Amino acid sequence: MAFQPRMTSSITGITILDDLRWRRWNGVVADVWRVQCEAGARGEYVSRDPRLFVVLERKCGQAELQLTARGGSVCACAPVHMSYVPAGMPLWSRVERGGELRHLDLHFDADGLARRLGEELDHERLATPQLGFMDERIHVLARLIAEECVQPDTRHDLYGDGLVMSLFIDLMKLGRSRSERRSALSQRQLRRVTSFIEDNCFRNIRLSELAEMTELSQSYFSHAFKAATGMPPSQWHMQARLRRVRQMLEETDLALTEIAVTTGFADQAHLTRVFRRFCAITPAAWRRARRL
Questions:
Q1: pTM above 0.70, yes or no
Q2: Which CATH superfamily is domain 182-292 in?
Q3: Residue 179's pLDDT band (cuts 50, 70, 90)
Q4: Which H helix or E strand runs over 96?
Q5: 86-109 per-position pLDDT tens digit
């Protein structure tokens, strides 16, 4: 299912000037707004997802932003600035002098982005608000993302996808060393997981099932499993299934169609494609060779 951000808001003295321009990429939804603010305009916003609010252009006076969870506030006086707001944290805004404002909202699917990045995100960083700050590199990326929202047909989707991923990596201060420091599964964890795979290899096994057994996140488990075995869990699962297929080919006279259905493949053709990819030979040829 596509990521669907949800935010509730209550505004006073703010008029939307243009139709909403927005885009969805994998794990991120971007909105571009142009609004007219009266003097004393105010708003209250709560999002179920972490988001980044970026002022692209401002032709109005001072704005005050306040987060109740931390009991603090900041006056953002610069013409352009940004604020990171964690999931579920209310944000209040007040514009002291009226004017026009154009801004970009980026809503992040933190779990989806963590899966794409293949690493656990820093929960403390995700939960820490940043109000009224300015980062030139992030702001450049934000402006390019806003252009993709306003003119969505000019470039390939991968262009915008790369922009939002780059911005998120910068915002969360992610580095390669984080994933490189991860350790492999312990011998006890590995034995438990591989035994489970062997016992259930004829059915689809969800990554979440294996991760829960080790009390690790899905992304961390995937890295730790590969570090211990040299292959991802899905490949280990398929190898276990094919070992059982080879055993049945050698020890029984069952037809290939029956073996395919018994071992969880859609049909004989599906079994043959997978068997050839992993074993470089068809099941029928493998059976003949073993019997000779």
A1: no
A2: Homeodomain-like (1.10.10.60)
A3: very low
A4: none
A5: 999 898 888 887 889 899 999 999
Which value, to the nearest 10 degrees, does the dihedral of the CA atoms of residues 171, 172, 175, 178 take?
180
First to last CA, the chain: 50
CB 285 within 8 A of CB 274: no
Say what the pLDDT of residue 94 is. 84
Could you state, in order of their start, the residue ranges of all structural domains in the chain? 7-177, 182-292
pLDDT at 177 over 50: no
Do 126 and 50 meet the contact criterion of CB atoms below 8 Å apart?
yes
Contact between residue 46 and residue 89 where contact means Cβ atoms under 8 Å apart: yes
* Residues 148, 144: Cα–Cα separation, whole Å: 6
Does the pLDDT of residue 180 top 70, yes or no? no
Q: Where are the alpha helices (DSSP H) in the chain?
A: 110-117, 123-126, 136-150, 157-172, 176-180, 187-199, 207-214, 218-229, 233-251, 256-262, 268-279, 283-291
Q: Which CATH architecture has domain 7-177?
A: Sandwich (2.60)
